[in-house]
Amino acid sequence: MSLSNLSVTEQSVTKPSATKKGDRSSNLKTDPSRSLRSFALNELEAITDCFHHDGYAVIKDVFSTQEVSNLKRATDRVKRRGFKLGRSFRQGNQGYWVNDDPLIGTNVIGMQWPSYDEKVLELHRRDPRMLTILEPLIGPNIRQIVNQLHWKTPGSTFAVSFHRDRINRKPAQAYRELASSYVQTATVIDPMTADNGALLLVPGSQLRRARSTHPGKGNFVNGDISRAYLSDEGYREVDLVPAYAEPGDVVLWHVDTIHGSEMNQSSHDRCLYINGYVDARNCMRGHWAFIEGQGIPLPPIDVPVLIHRDDIFEHNEVEFVSTPNHPTD
């Protein structure tokens, strides 16, 4: 079974009316003129240096307007299926995340492994340009452990608390040499702006040993995100830098870079297509993305592959589930 068979129409996803700017307070006090350093795709040495030194990189115009338009249509179809389901759902490694938002009611906040259902998303995860970015960092043999869509619906309270991705790479023994073997990427589908919940990062935080234990209440939250974890780690508001980016850009960050994002207080949707990759020499989990630089297609959805669900070989059935509070449930 695949949810791609659910009947959906091609019109844009219906979006709830956005709350007027200023109706809800925001803790964000970063300077809107500040943003992360960005590069062209052919500046590979600078991209690699920035990733190692600052824990991130923003690559501009990796994908064309037409390619982004195709991605947008696919992500809209996926979101419509989520609304049609109306509840969180999973089959094997695939899952829809649907919550009951305090302000707008039923809200699709994300999906895991949408590439099973949407060919354009499946081709994107193994696009040669992704390899161009990844190979200098983790080599030509790459597994994929994250394939997700995240939506910030206007008017909703959905936000992502500050965290390091390391807390989601479990069990720890499955990810050897994690700091030098993992790259998180986000292809920008909708513009990331000051008022729609752009990604916020602390450059250089990947170089500092964690001082505290993450609260452990999950990354997915409702409302303004707490700065307590930032403070515990020795950072202040002024250390945050927003990743303002345009459709077709790719943002990447280190597994130990502190990041999060606020609510969407604009009138426009904000979708990110997130793909996380690992050096296959240091991880036996995940789908193959590239072998010796060649892109590898996904198997059918009913073929179990060990990623984050240890029970995947015993339980691959279709089931409705509780909405997760972090992006690997």
State the gist of this model.
This protein is α+β, with helices and mostly antiparallel strands and 329 residues long. Helix content is 18%, strand content 26%. It has a single domain, classed as Jelly Rolls (Sandwich), CATH 2.60.120.620.
Jot down its keywords.
single chain, alpha+beta, twelve-stranded mixed beta sheet, five-stranded antiparallel beta sheet
Describe the structure.
This protein is of the alpha+beta class and 329 residues long. The chain has one domain: Sandwich (Jelly Rolls). Helices cover 18% and strands 26% of the residues. It has 6 helices and 17 strands. The chain has helices at residues 44-54, 65-85, 119-125, 128-138, 178-181, 228-232; strands at residues 38-39, 56-59, 89-91, 94-101, 105-112, 142-152, 158-163, 182-188, 199-201, 220-222, 241-242, 250-253, 259-261, 270-279, 287-291, 294-295, 318-320. Strands 1, 2, 3, 4, 5, 6, 8, 12, 14, 15, 16 and 17 form a 12-stranded mixed sheet that branches. A 5-stranded antiparallel sheet has the order 10-7-13-9-11, with no helix packed on it. The radius of gyration is 18 Å and the shape is globular.
